[in-house]
Design a protein that fits this description.
Layout: H1 4-15, H2 25-32, H3 34-41, H4 50-61, H5 63-82, H6 93-96, H7 100-106, E1 111-115, E2 121-132, E3 161-166, E4 170-176, E5 183-193, H8 195-203, H9 227-233, E6 251-254, E7 264-267, H10 277-280, E8 285-288, H11 299-315
Antiparallel strand pairs: 1-2, 1-6, 2-5, 2-8, 3-4, 4-5, 7-8
Helix pairs in contact: 2-11, 4-5
Length: about 325
């Protein structure tokens, strides 16, 4: 018998006009939190230790002692919530050797680094990704396992860069994963370093066509909020195709923050309607909740994620 809180969740979602789909990932995660409820109900009455009783006595005598203890608790909470900070350590082969969906989620929060030829280093945090599973995925370049000269990197070792042109003009950057012909598309970055250079590149997206130049001043979150935009801003082009991210000197990914599951929004991929309703409706795009650099928000899915986050905060 389903927990009453899950029924309340479904009711509240339906009241907002959102269709509840069977095996909805958000609902599945919601159901899994019942385990926390069961554990909390089994907790025994807490009996304070002698040291804690002594600490309470110290608090009564010394107000500064209470302040020190409170500060410690706050710091400990921050460490547990944020999990980790940027380390500047390059990610190795083992990081990419995982399923396409796990890689797409795992890349969120990591830092894409571009070393320009005789130039500065540009950095951006990955905030949005998309999965292309190969095989039965009709939206994938490797649908039904077909191999062409263009999509060969999708069948190479996990962590291989796959660059292709959209509209014959703009580069898009993908990373191969486990699975025949599976890859993750990088959709958006949050600029961290080299914004001035990114601005120049965005103002001159096609050096071969001076008429395309512009003087527009882009806001920071507008520089890389799209798969083609991020490639223009970081000068990612076909010369990087088939390079290995674990040892390339021109493009690599560094460890960053680990984004908690309850802050990842799962949504439909963008621009794959021609693949048919079945594959166009699959939730294979992932982005960081409330990040301004995301290319396109899905407010309905965000509502589900926020409700689950609120539930976890109250009952865990």
């Amino acid at each position: 018998m389903e927990d009453i809180r899950i029924n309340s969740y479904v009711t509240s979602v339906r009241e907002r006009g959102i269709k509840v789909i069977k095996n909805d990932p958000s609902l599945i995660r919601y159901k899994q939190t019942k385990l926390f409820l069961e554990m909390s109900n089994k907790r025994k009455r807490y009996i304070p230790r002698k040291s804690e009783v002594d600490n309470d006595a110290k608090e009564a005598e010394d107000p500064d002692y209470s302040l020190q203890k409170t500060t410690y608790k706050i710091k400990r909470e921050v460490i547990n919530t944020e999990i980790m900070v940027d380390t500047g350590i390059r990610l190795g082969e083992t990081f990419y050797n995982t399923t396409c969906e796990d890689l797409a989620k795992g890349l969120l929060g990591k830092i894409l680094v571009r070393q320009l030829n005789q130039g500065p280093i540009l950095k951006g945090r990955i905030v949005e990704t998309e999965c292309y599973l190969g095989g039965e995925d009709k939206a994938s370049h490797s649908y039904q396992g077909r191999i062409t000269e263009r999509n060969k990197p999708m069948f190479m070792k996990p962590g291989t860069i796959y660059i292709y042109l959209t509209y014959g003009m703009y580069a898009l950057c993908n990373i191969s994963s486990q699975g025949e012909g599976a890859a993750v598309l990088l959709r958006a970055l949050e600029p961290l370093q080299g914004q001035e250079e990114m601005q120049k590149f965005r103002n001159n997206p096609r050096p071969d066509k001076p008429e395309k130049q512009t003087t527009k001043v882009f806001k920071s979150h507008e520089l890389c909020n799209g798969p083609a935009k991020l490639c223009i801003s970081l000068q990612i082009d076909k010369s990087l195709n088939k390079k290995d991210l674990s040892n390339s000197k021109e493009l690599w990914i560094e460890d960053g923050i680990t984004v908690p599951e309850h802050k990842i929004v799962s949504s439909q991929r963008i621009g794959v309607e021609s693949a048919g309703m079945e594959w166009a409706s699959k939730l294979l795009r992932y982005y960081i909740l409330d990040n301004k650099s995301v290319s396109k928000r899905d407010k309905r899915q965000e509502i589900k994620v926020k409700e689950i986050a609120d539930y976890l905060q109250v009952y865990t």
